[in-house]
## 1
Amino acid sequence: MTVIDLSGRVAIVTGASRGIGRAAAEALLKVGATVVLNARASDEASASFAELEKAYPDRVTAVYGSVADSATATALLQSAMKHKRLDILVNNAGVLRDKLIGMISDAEINELFDINIIGLIKITQLAARLMSRRKSGSIINISSIVGRRGNSGQMVYSATKAAVIGATFSAAKELGPMNIRVNAVAPGLIQTSMIEAIPGDKRKNLESQIPMGRVGAAQDVADTILFLASDLSSYVTGQIIGVDGGLIV
């Protein structure tokens, strides 16, 4: 059996304090990577990161701030540069705001685009510069099933996640000659805080449409991220990998 070993490699994971981001960060740490963690400052984020720092001493750095802020992107790359390399970038930070058409404020539109796609582009640009020095790297963007098929009440969120897919395709073509791979993961219904607000009846209906018969776990997505971060996917780029239990088959 092939064992993934990322010892000596450096990763950045945004939105890493909980859910998919936290699972991805821990998965990378377990196989030896050094990880720069990011989240907006909060007691929850501080506690989450302190836990990882204790479990993986000397391999965890925390950078607090919104990815919508250019200063956060700069601070993340500066932290990676202390290790003189960047091998993996997981663009996971994102926000979800459900609103029906006609009820969406300008502030909500701006927030979702700033965090879900504009921040991703800012960090990707800086990361690509550092990765290009070694002519190697893997960038993993977190999209969503709704970026591929849409969803009622999520016009803006779906638009930002569709934009992530477009950005992934373009970056993969541009960065491929430098041996920098760019892929996206499109989770379906995953057990995280984002789905807690879904009413029981609606959730049961969604679950009934999943051929594999269960809601996904954050670890299911983290395992796919780990594959894309590793040499097992060395010839995989420009792909959108659904982690949805067959929901859109």
Note: Strands lie at 10-13, 34-39, 60-64, 88-91, 137-142, 180-187, 240-243.
## 2
Amino acid sequence: MTSSFPGGTSLSQLDVYDDAAADGVCGGSPHMHLVSTEAYIVISGEGSLQTIDGAGFRETTLVPGSVVWFTPGTIHRAVNRGDLRVIVLMSDAGLPEAGDAVMTFPSEVVAHAASYAAAASLGDVSDAADERAARAARRRDLAVVGFERLRDAVLDGDRGALEAFHRAALALVRNRSAAWGDLVRQGPLAQARNSLALASAVAEGSAAHLADARVHDALAASGERSFGMCGRLRTYDVTDRGNS
């Protein structure tokens, strides 16, 4: 099914993990996306976004009404300082689910696909929620270890560890990236082309497309919220169903 949801993006609600990692900081698993841009719209609570990118380490305060987005390659860690809940918009809907995210496990884990997969696994979806929560906490704690190493190296002026992580992340996802271009073409690129066609039609004096206007509503996923990298996720189905 197609989606006319703005920009070919995906939508979810995130309740950032509120348990503490080994460093005493409450929040999610540090990770980065290789292709997708991510946005946070804060709807409650307070916290921060810790990031590592080409400009170094930064911490951005998050309060209700904050809107923050970060481009591919930004390593990010959501920090929960009390009831932090955000709406997440992801570019290139379907691509994050196709595996463009890599967590900041220590280099000796990220360097080996099998070790990375074992560390990232939450087990089977049929496993008890408390067991999946425990696995999510373990992988978060391991990602924090690698994040701290990268952060400390960058703060010391050493970009070598960050560049090595980029290379290892690329090696992890490259084999599964062949179909990513199709997701972009079928989503945001198709929407952009359609918008250009409509703009041209209006410029030529045609309003025929207005007769096809429809309202769509998103369906929230039912059942237990999933265990995401940064917290508990409630995803939304934004494919077009149409209300006439």
Note: The helical segments are 107-110, 113-120, 129-155, 160-173, 180-203.
